[in-house]
């Protein structure tokens, strides 16, 4: 590997970023030894002086220390705590996010931390401004649900920013490929699989889905659904699986309503629809009512999140229970453990949600025997 050919960033800075990533990927613990200056110079074809610049920078940041004649060692996260945690969320005051943030706040206050909260509103620029402002405030750690998580790649700002952070952080509802980051998220793939398998078990063979396509939970639930159909040797009809972008929802275009109408107006419509979340199901339910269809006699619907209005539908909604408050508490618990122990690779948590069966799914014909 030759830093000189990568970009215009100074080589010592590239080496510094490499070492930060190396510490995370290898799970380097406090007082563990890092590669020697000679090894780094030879590996990356750079001068000893460049290596020393990078090492000096990390030493000034308090992340490493040198022992004469023995080498360079990882010190860990040692800066004086300000007892402030940054939280960047796409929503802060409605739907499931109120409970998630409440869980974060409760656990933080129990441990004498305060939170600095920002609503990105699903906007890249707002997310960027929020992170930069929080770093200026010298936060001790960061909890973030990134914007449009399924579109993140190595060239994106958020990928580069998180990779180079020198403070602990946790991502929520998001695992970023190529980034060694502690995360907590619903096991959306398995949930999508189980939702589809449940509908198959109730006799449904023509299953539709409406999902948000540019966030990871939506993408993973859709992938789980498709795999379940394959495993049960059922046809995958592209007309039945419809995605929409986050911006369409934010612009008030009612994508779930229109896509539901598109599904139920087909000459051979599905007998059940799996919705990305309960809010999407609620929007779709309006289209079903306008067609003068009834749930579940004419069509079954399945949601996700077990939101506050799931049990208030005209027909109570079968859905998955999202451990909202617990997820917030766990995110904060993981972050504080990282702050106190400096081990950046020990915490990845997948939570499998529980299926809540109500009256919105009809068992048709003879119940299918699952594998």
Report on the architecture of this protein.
The chain is of the alpha/beta class. It has three domains: 3-74, Winged helix-like DNA-binding domain superfamily/Winged helix DNA-binding domain (Arc Repressor Mutant, subunit A, Orthogonal Bundle), CATH 1.10.10.10; 84-186 and 325-352, Rossmann fold (3-Layer(aba) Sandwich), CATH 3.40.50; 188-322, Rossmann fold (3-Layer(aba) Sandwich). The protein contains twelve helices and 14 strands. The strands form four sheets. Strands 4-3-5-6-7-13 form a six-stranded parallel sheet, with helices on both faces. Strands 9-8-10-11 form a four-stranded parallel sheet, sandwiched between helices. It has a two-stranded antiparallel ribbon with strand order 1-2. Helix 1 (11-25) crosses helix 3, helix 2 (37-44) packs across helix 3 and helix 4 packs parallel to helix 12 (324-341). The chain is elongated. The mean pLDDT is 88.
**What is the CATH third-level topology name of the largest domain?**
Rossmann fold
The mean pLDDT is 88
CATH architecture of the largest domain: 3-Layer(aba) Sandwich
- CATH C-level class of the largest domain is Alpha Beta
- Biggest sheet strand order reads 4-3-5-6-7-13
The tally of beta strands, per DSSP, is: 14
Computed CA radius of gyration, to the nearest angstrom: 24 Å
CATH superfamily of the largest domain: Response regulator
Strand content: 15-25%
Element string (H = helix, E = strand)? HHHEEEHEHEHEEHEHEHHEHEEHEE
Derived from helix and strand composition plus strand pairing, the structural class reads alpha/beta
Q: Regions with pLDDT < 50 over 5+ consecutive residues?
A: none
Number of domains: 3
């Amino acid at each position: 590997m030759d830093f000189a050919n990568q970009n215009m960033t100074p080589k010592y800075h590239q080496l510094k970023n490499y070492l930060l990533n190396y510490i995370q990927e290898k799970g380097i613990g406090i007082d563990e030894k890092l590669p020697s200056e000679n090894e780094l110079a030879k590996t990356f074809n750079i001068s000893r002086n460049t290596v020393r610049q990078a090492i000096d920078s990390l030493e000034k940041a308090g992340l490493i220390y040198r022992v004469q004649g023995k080498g360079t060692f990882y010190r860990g996260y040692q800066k004086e705590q300000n007892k402030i945690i940054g939280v960047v969320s796409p929503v802060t005051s409605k739907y499931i996010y109120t409970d998630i943030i409440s869980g974060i706040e409760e656990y933080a206050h129990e441990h004498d931390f305060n939170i600095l909260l920002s609503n990105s509103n699903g906007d890249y620029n707002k997310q960027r401004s929020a992170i930069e402002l929080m770093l200026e405030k010298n936060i001790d750690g960061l909890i973030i649900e990134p914007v449009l998580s399924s579109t993140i790649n190595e060239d994106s700002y958020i990928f580069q920013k998180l990779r180079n952070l020198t403070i602990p952080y946790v991502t929520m509802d998001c695992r970023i490929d190529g980034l060694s980051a502690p995360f907590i998220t619903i096991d959306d793939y398995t949930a999508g699989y189980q939702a589809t398998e449940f509908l198959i078990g109730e006799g449904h063979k023509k299953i539709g889905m409406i999902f948000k396509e540019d966030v990871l939970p939506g993408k993973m639930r859709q992938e789980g659904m498709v795999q379940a159909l394959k495993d049960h040797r059922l046809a995958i009809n592209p007309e039945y699986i419809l995605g929409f972008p986050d911006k369409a929802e934010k612009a008030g275009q009612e994508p779930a309503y229109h896509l539901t109408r598109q599904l139920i107006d087909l000459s051979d419509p599905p007998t059940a629809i799996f919705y990305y979340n309960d809010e999407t199901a609620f929007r779709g339910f309006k289209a079903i009512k306008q067609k003068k269809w009834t749930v579940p006699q004419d069509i079954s619907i399945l949601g996700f999140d077990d939101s506050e209005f799931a049990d208030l539908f005209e027909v109570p909604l079968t859905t998955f229970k999202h451990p909202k408050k617990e997820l917030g508490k766990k995110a904060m618990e993981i972050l504080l453990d990282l702050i106190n122990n400096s081990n950046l690779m020990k915490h990845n948590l997948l939570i499998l949600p529980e299926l809540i069966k109500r009256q919105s799914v009809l068992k048709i014909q003879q119940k299918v025997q699952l594998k």
